Amino acid sequence: MFQLTPFNSTYDRTSFLCGSDALDRYIKEHVTQDIRRRIAACFVAVDNDHNIIGYYTLSAASILLTDLPEHLRKKFPRYPTIPAIRMGRLAVSLSSKGTGLGGALLADALYRAYTSEIAAYALIVDAKDDTAVAFYKHYGFMAFPESGRTLFMPLASLSTIK
């Protein structure tokens, strides 16, 4: 069992290990600074002992209108950019890999982005490798035409999900 909640410095993050040095170091050393500076919000999955077993970050972003596929671009006024939310990091502890926690964290991020009182067109992600690209595409994300590792999901596509 796990609980999804906003990051709290009382949770144990010292033992978090996901297999990526950058993601491990971020949750252990940098997340509190980013939250304090309002650069990112962090949400965590914690187990019954309050150990962090997964996390993701969200921050404000924008999409250049010209970066969208043509069929989507036509639907917008000719603004140079449109608002979005970026999921900058998504990490699952090695002990929780293969349990569906990554999908649960992604679903939580999409839900928070969709229900936010601040308007945003899409959730953007930067996949670190081809495995991550496949993970996001499995959940319906589309790649930007000029950047195969930056993907997005229009939040309006979630309106049918309750």
Automatic annotation (TrEMBL):
Pfam families linked to this entry: Acetyltransf_10
UniProt feature coiled coil, ranges: none
Signal sequence coordinates: none
Gene Ontology terms for molecular function: acyltransferase activity, transferring groups other than amino-acyl groups
SUPFAM superfamilies in the record: Acyl-CoA N-acyltransferases (Nat)
Catalytic activity: glycyl-tRNA(Gly) + acetyl-CoA = N-acetylglycyl-tRNA(Gly) + CoA + H(+)
Record carries keyword Acyltransferase: yes
Domain N-acetyltransferase: from-to ranges: 33-144
Source organism superkingdom: Bacteria
Alphabetical keyword list: Acyltransferase, Repressor, Toxin-antitoxin system, Transferase
InterPro entries, per database record: Acyl_CoA_acyltransferase, GNAT_dom
Family from the record: Belongs to the acetyltransferase family. GNAT subfamily.
Entry protein name: GNAT family N-acetyltransferase
